[in-house]
Amino acid sequence: MNRLILAAVLAVSATSAMAQDGPVSPASVQTAADPAAPAVAVADAFHAALGSGDADAVLALLAEDVMVLEEGGAERSREEYAGHHLPADMAFAAATTAEVTRRAAWVEGDIAWVLTEGRTRGTFSGRPVDRLTAETMILHRGADGWSIRHIHWSSRAPR
Question: Rounded mean pLDDT of 50-68?
Answer without folding.
Answer: 98
